[in-house]
Amino acid sequence: MSQTEVSGMKATLVPLATLIGRELRSEKVEKPYLKYGQAAVAKKGEDCFLIKTDCQRTHSNPSTSFSVFAIFDGHNGISAAIFAKENLLANVLSAIPQGISRDEWLHALPRALVAGFVKTDIEFQQKGETSGTTVTFVVIDGWTVTVASVGDSRCILDTQGGVVSLLTVDHRLEENEEERARVTASGGEVGRLNVFGGSEVGPLRCWPGGLCLSRSIGDTDVGEFIVPIPHVKQVKLSNAGGRLIIASDGIWDALSSDLAAKSCRGLPAELAAKLVVKEALRSRGLKDDTTCLVVDIIPSDHPVLPPTPMKKQNILASLIFGKKTRNSVNKRNKLSSVGVVEELFEEGSAMLAERLGKDSTLDANSGLFRCAVCQVDQPPVEGLSVNSGPFFSPASKPWEGLFLCAKCRNKKDAMEGRRLSTPTVILW
């Protein structure tokens, strides 16, 4: 999808003939094959996979198929990881309008991922359980790959040009200065664990709670400045294809992105996943759940992913394609060589108003507003616009823009430090 097409989607009215033409052109493009493999060695048994290759944008229409691959790395128990695995996809899809074209669906997906993550977090916290989970959630529709992530699991892309690109951002307080500043501005404190005698040990953590991550789903017992709002990146591969490696931190604490990619090149996906896990255990031992998914996106005329031309790596790596259509985070990991990957979208802000946009959600027929997060229709007296301030004033327009019900508005205020929770202290 070109930058012009992405910008053009903001128009309120699109002729029907144009929409039909887009869909027909999309159907003429050969979809790639997907081959995948998974491997895991458990220490605490808190990691979960989600593999779903039969999703459809339009019900009972196989030509609108897409696939989802995800890893949930739980902590303080496995319940948050299981809940996210069972509910996140449905919550994301409920936030995408029905009856739209493929291009419009892909354009709506990043915002729907934000709404789905936040809704899943709210629903889990209502259960009163204290576990949490990282999430790396990958949607593959044809040659377009969209990745949403919270926490320190990771997804990398190894293209046929030999360039390894990071499609996620780590939300560890130790490595992420922006997240440390956000947490403290929202009412949390960042520091190491104090032991007897006043010495500080271990990684940077958020207090109260002692979590070393700044974003997750769950963690009811930690301050709500630990947010479920994901970093989202969307890219389009060329028809040369590529390989995704999605893994929990048990892999990435042992292997760099480059080493993980190189360790399994030329192998089929199922064997590649096992080899990545084996290499991580050989390097570091079993100190955490070690979980890996490998997904090959393969041209339809190739039975396997073509081998990477190793000798050209250094040349291609210097040809960085820095195209952006929205605000970018983590500029250290710009994508890849010319003609291999086109970057369509990247955003990592933790401010809900910035991530959900300003489009009106009023139903003119019923007079009801639909909450942009939980997708429930309610009268305007029961909520506020995501863009309105905390109080009414004669000059304010509290229902202008996307609507949030009272529950979701409360969540937004808590994440931004306007309403602080009082968690108990549990270390992870």
UniProtKB/TrEMBL annotation:
InterPro entries recorded: PP2C, PPM-type-like_dom_sf, PPM-type_phosphatase-like_dom
Catalytic activity: O-phospho-L-seryl-[protein] + H2O = L-seryl-[protein] + phosphate; O-phospho-L-threonyl-[protein] + H2O = L-threonyl-[protein] + phosphate
Keyword presence, Manganese: yes
Record EC number: 3.1.3.16
Gene Ontology terms describing biological process: regulation of intracellular signal transduction
PROSITE patterns given in the database record: PPM_2 (PS51746)
Claim: Membrane is one of the keywords in the record: no
UniProt-recorded Gene Ontology molecular function terms: metal ion binding; protein serine/threonine phosphatase activity
Domain PPM-type phosphatase: 32-297
Required cofactor names: Mn(2+); Mg(2+)
Keyword annotations: Hydrolase, Magnesium, Manganese, Metal-binding, Protein phosphatase
Top-level enzyme category: hydrolase
Family of the protein in this entry: Belongs to the PP2C family.
Record's protein name: protein-serine/threonine phosphatase
Taxonomic classification: Eukaryota, Viridiplantae, Streptophyta, Embryophyta, Tracheophyta
